[in-house]
């Protein structure tokens, strides 16, 4: 594994790691080797999994659901 085990990070460290990995995602996808992309995928899944474990009842924005997306699509058609 690359980096500190996510369950050992405090909340602030976890958020910083998530911000960094999301910021570097696009460049890794476009310009990283297959191995770099695999490593990035694994680390991102670990960090996101830990976030979800800690925040199972996180607030969900209605527009970020399938129903919300459908409603946006209908509104755009009008």
General description of the model:
By secondary structure, this protein is mostly helical. 69% of the residues lie in helices and 0% in strands. The protein contains 3 helices and no strands. It has helices at 11-31, 34-54, 66-77. Helix 1 packs antiparallel against helix 2 (34-54). The longest helix is centred in the first third of the chain and has 21 residues, at 11-31. The protein is flat.
Biggest sheet layout: none
Which parts are unreliable, with pLDDT below 50 for 5 consecutive residues or more? none
End-to-end gap = 50 Å
Basic shape: flat
Number of helices: 3
Global Rg: 16 Å
Determine the fraction of residues in helical runs and give it as a percent range: 55-70%
Structural class: mainly alpha
Order of helices and strands: HHH
Subunit arrangement of the protein: single chain
Secondary structure tally: strands: 0
């Amino acid at each position: 594994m690359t980096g500190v085990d996510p369950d050992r990070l405090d909340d602030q460290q976890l958020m910083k790691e998530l911000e960094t990995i999301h910021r570097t995602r696009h460049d890794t996808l476009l310009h990283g080797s297959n191995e770099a992309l695999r490593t990035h995928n694994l680390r991102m899944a670990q960090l996101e999994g830990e976030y979800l474990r800690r925040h199972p009842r996180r607030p969900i924005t209605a527009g970020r659901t399938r129903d919300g997306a459908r409603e946006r699509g209908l509104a755009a058609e009008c």
